[in-house]
Amino acid sequence: MCNTSVHTFILSSAFACLDEWQTGEHVDVPFTAAAYKLKFTTHLKQLIMFDDKTKESDIVPRILEHMLKMARQHAKVVDAPEAAEAIQFTEDDVEVAKKE
Predict the structure, then answer these.
(1) Dmax of the chain from CA atoms?
(2) The DUF6532 domain covers which part of the protein (predicted)?
(3) Of 9, 10, 5, residue with least CA distance to 74
């Protein structure tokens, strides 16, 4: 599972999407570090604090696992092991990626 910072980034990007529609009409809002650093930091602190206070209930890991499950479902990710095994990178693939 991804770490807390990755989930906080996802939450911050979701808030950025909401910010684009806060007037009821779409307005382009750049998702930049300058614009969202404070929101990211605030969300991260809140998530860590909530996790610390609810450790015994295992709430945050369950919420994050549910978020991951829903994201994978909406992205139509196949969980079958054979799908992961079907992707094989050759040395040529690696070399091409290094050059890009």
Answers:
(1) 50
(2) 9-47
(3) 10
Q: CA separation (Å) from 3 to 53, 68, 77, 89?
A: 18, 11, 20, 26
pTM of the complete model: 0.61
Determine whether 91 is exposed, middle or buried from the number of CB atoms within 10 Å of its CB (0-12, 13-18, 19+). Answer: exposed
Handedness of CA 40, 44, 45, 46 (dihedral sign): positive
Structure tokens at 72: 């994978």
Residue ranges of domains in the chain: 4-99
pLDDT, tens only, 58-73: 998 898 888 888 888 8
- Distance of alpha carbon 44 from the chain centroid: 13
Helices (H), the chain: 4-20, 33-53, 59-74, 81-86, 91-99
